[in-house]
Design a protein that fits this description.
single chain, alpha+beta, two-stranded antiparallel ribbon, 2 strands, elongated
């Protein structure tokens, strides 16, 4: 076995792994109960539980899986502003930078 880690392929569409990792990408704070409910809808006989969620989160943390960027929740872009006085009127105004 080599010293370098092998990155796992992202699970195929429609698998439990894909559902879990996509949910984690969209909301890293998703609860194990929420994930279990979602998994059991699609896979009613699954034994999926909190320990499985912990395993997937650990795999992401150590870099064995990389969450897809296109599904990740990205922070809203905000425009930078600067407060200044209008030279003509002397009133304070906010200007986009």
């Amino acid at each position: 076995m080599s010293a370098s880690k092998k990155m796992r392929k992202f699970p195929k569409q429609g698998t439990i792994g894909n559902i879990v990792l996509t949910a984690l990408a969209k909301n890293p704070a998703v609860t194990a109960d929420d994930l279990k409910a979602g998994i059991l809808k699609k896979f009613p006989d699954s034994k999926f539980g909190p320990s499985h969620v912990a395993w997937y989160k650990h795999q992401v943390k150590v870099g064995n899986y990389v969450l897809p960027e296109d599904t990740a929740v990205k922070p809203a872009k905000t425009k930078k502003t600067h407060k200044t006085k209008d030279k003509k009127t002397g009133k304070k105004q906010t200007v986009a930078v």
